[in-house]
Amino acid sequence: MMAQYAASVSGAAEKIGGQVLDVTKILLEALSVQKKLLIEIKQTQKPDMACLAEFLKPLNEVIMKANAMAEGRRSDFFNHLKSAGDSLSALAWIAYTGKDCGMSMPIAHVEESWQMAEFYNNKVLVEYRNKDQNHVEWAKALKELYLPGLRDYVKSHYPLGPVWSASGKKASSVPSKAPAPGAPAPAPPPPPPASLFSSEPSQPSSSGPKQGMSAVFQEINTGNVTAGLKKVTADMKTKNRADRTAIVSVSEKETCSSSSSFSKAGPPKLELQMGRKWVVENQIGRKNLVIDDCDAKQSVYVFGCKDSVLQIQGKVNNITVDKCTKMGVVFKDVVAACEIVNCNGVEVQCQGSAPTISVDNTSGCQLYLSKDSLGASITTAKSSEINVLVPAAESDGDWGEHSLPQQYIHVFKDGQFETTPVSHSGVFLRFKLLVYLDVLKTRTQLQLVGVCQRLVFLMLNCSQV
After folding, report:
1. What is the pLDDT of the chain when averaged over all its residues?
2. How many angstroms separate the CA atoms of 172 and 409, rounded?
């Protein structure tokens, strides 16, 4: 990977020179440090979190050095510096210690980290597309370094994270400086500080306080983790409080319940992320949600919303409605598909065209199609109570409602299975009606409700009752 992809980035940077060459050298230094750490991992036992932070400190220092180049006064090569600096967070895949460590799997982490850097990398491509092909070559080589370079390397050798030695030396004995050259590279450092992703300029990491994960690791490295904690005096302890009581006021209950619900669902969102994806999350009781500034290259992801209505005023590439309850979505045109997943009691209306609509693991879904979307392909799986409403032939006519089957008969015939939807004939319905009428004689009052509902259904579907 170093010989093929890193050499291409280095060669393009040498043609440009200046800060682009400087940040590229730091990038190659970070790859070299990770390579050495990977060799050390094969000879080291798996450490705890504190020792892991110390073990990854050499890599973290190199990443911080790259991030510092993009801070302070804005450079003419700001997009180059941000693209290279942000991309180094992909090396943090080496810190993956298991599914409970709080980060994505190594392969997914590399892909997600590059998405952050790609925003600035695309700016380089657009700015120098017709000006200087050396910059275009550098931007393309940088992307290939991570996708497919680093991604395929991690996929081939460390898909589940770095493999620590079961009988090697302990991580505490690992020197804080970078190990000797000539080694592979697992366990990456922590992600870059939060200031990298902020629009406001910040002081260099060496002169100002660190933020985000860098601040956490900085505190751990100092060894005085509890310095900022307040001391608990005797009168603050619960056992010494004079106002203790077993009665909880209504206001306290409401405060506790509201805070707990917020922590589970998270804050509401309606925002455009990275210029490509509209995210609508955790909206409750909002009937006036609108997305009007969208285009055919953007997608819309609706998650965890309840009792709300979203209008999408424009053509988008894809729409996904996930884990929503009593949610209404109205859109004009979609290029690829509209997907409804893990929902309950949702209504989706297409006012324009939609080639594909899929409903998966959903209970209760109303689909409203326009005349332009009558040719849409509707796919359902593990779903129930799906009704499709289509406009009448006359402009002033009522909507026609069609329920999609959820029961099927599979018959083995001529060497293969033939599948047909279940259709209840009149004889079958009359038989079930007689059964339910007989059941009425033996049911209690509380059990009659469900039986009566089935009777109504049978009477509506059996013309000879």
Report:
1. 77
2. 64
Q: Scan for tokens 């001529």, then name that residue.
A: 414
pTM score: 0.40
> Do residues 186 and 158 make contact, with C-beta atoms less than 8 angstroms apart?
yes
**CA 74 and chain centroid, separation:** 31
b/e burial code for range 188-206 (CB count within 10 A of at least 16 → b)? bbbbbbebbeeeeebeebe
* Neighbouring C-alpha atoms within 13 Å toward the C-beta of 297: 4
Mean pLDDT of 212-234: 63
In whole angstroms, give the CA distance from residue 53 to residue 30: 16
Q: Is the pLDDT of residue 260 over 80?
A: no
Angle between helices 57-69 and 18-42 (to 10 degrees): 170
211/71 Cα distance (integer angstroms): 14
How many Cβ atoms from other residues are within 10 Å of residue 342's Cβ?
Answer: 14
CA distance 135 to 125: 7
Listed in sequence order, the DSSP H helices in 160-242 are 212-222
* Cα–Cα nearest to 405, from 424, 425, 390: 424
For 242: left if phi > 0, alpha if psi spans -120 to 50, otherwise beta; the answer is alpha
**Cα of 181 vs its chain's centroid, Å:** 37
Using DSSP's 3-state secondary structure scheme, residue 290 falls into strand
Q: How far apart are CA 436 and CA 30, in angstroms?
A: 74
Give residue-wise pLDDT tens across range 352-384.
999 999 999 999 999 999 988 898 999 998 998
- Of 85, 169, 159, 156, whose CA–CA distance to 119 is shortest? 85
Beta bridge partners of 140: none
Burial class (CB in 10 A: 0-12, 13-18, 19+), 58: buried
Structure tokens at 220: 């751990």
Structure tokens at 144: 């290939």
